[in-house]
Amino acid sequence: EMDPQERAFQERIDAGIKIEPKDWMPEGYRKTLIRQISQHAHSEIVGQLPEGNWITRAPTLERKAILLAKVQDEAGHGLYLYCAAETLGVSRDQLTEQLLSGKAKYSSIFNYPTLTWADIGAIGWLVDGAAIMNQVPLQRCSFGPYSRAMIRVCKEESFHQRQGYDIMMKLCQGTPEQKAMAQDALNRWWWPSLMMFGPSDAESVHSAQSMAWKIKLNSNDELRQKFVDQTVPQAEYLGLTVPDPDLKWNEDKGGYDYGEIDWAEFFEVIKGNGPCNRERMAARVKAHEDGAWFREGLMAHAEKQAERRRN
Ligand code: ACO
């Protein structure tokens, strides 16, 4: 039995009315949003690391400038999303602490290494492609600040996706070695990209409630299917082979059937045992510690200013 306040809240959601920070909301709604938005923010922040790894080694000055801008965009998305989470009554410091202590999750995808330049192409094409597939519907989610943040984020993600595909195009039109490098990157990033959408609908603990609250607009499997259907023709256009022997067009459903995802790998990665989890966390912790003098300096300055105003 739903209490009247909760029923009124659900009716607003069903009517497509946005919920704003000062509106009444069930504690579960608030908690779910803080969890999802902060995990999303952490993903953007940690997501800078695999690509940052290639900034000094980009093959041309132009590629370097583009990659630098893209990685800066990811930092911006992270800060933007932390602000959206803060409207729900949690502080940036608390969220940072949850990330650095290993309590909060961030996307599984950022625990894989970037071994060659082609990985930067594959990340833009596949990882940002998957991110857009998931985030475009979130522009219509029920929480105002999150939905509005997604508008700008999606515009920038589209640029990221195109720059990644452009790298793949160049490599695929290049020497046989370059094309092989592109194929190798697709081989390694394909399955982890499918895992970004989360566990299967049967295993997804939060989906039903989050969809009722319009914190999620589509299920994990729905978005994963849309991603496969969109991406396979793009791989064909590049002349690359998707590393899935079971991939097959299914006329009846008007989409591709694809092979079984290695869920054991997925759950290992989100438990902290992926190829780069420890390295990623160590890099974030070090960055935070290295920044301590700066935070202290800011505080000292703010105190001095306040002191001056008092006198
Ligand atoms: N990586 C890490 N953790 C994941 C992933 C993943 N790919 N997919 C699911 N999980 C976690 C969930 O966070 C949840 O953990 P928790 O209960 O400890 O918080 C658990 O696995 C169960 O999964 P679901 O019940 O399906 O969780 P949820 O309903 O939150 O769906 C999803 C997961 C689809 C990622 C959702 O949170 C979402 O849409 N988030 C916003 C988008 C986002 O975060 N994108 C980040 C990558 S894109 C980028 O940064 C470029």
Automatic annotation (TrEMBL):
GO terms for biological process: phenylacetate catabolic process. One of its GO terms (molecular function) is phenylacetyl-CoA 1,2-epoxidase activity. It comes from the Bacteria. One of its GO terms (cellular component) is cytosol. InterPro entries: Aromatic_CoA_ox/epox, Ferritin-like, Ferritin-like_SF, PaaA, PaaA_PaaC. NCBIfam families: PA_CoA_Oxy1. This is Phenylacetate-CoA oxygenase subunit PaaA. It comes from Thalassobaculum fulvum.
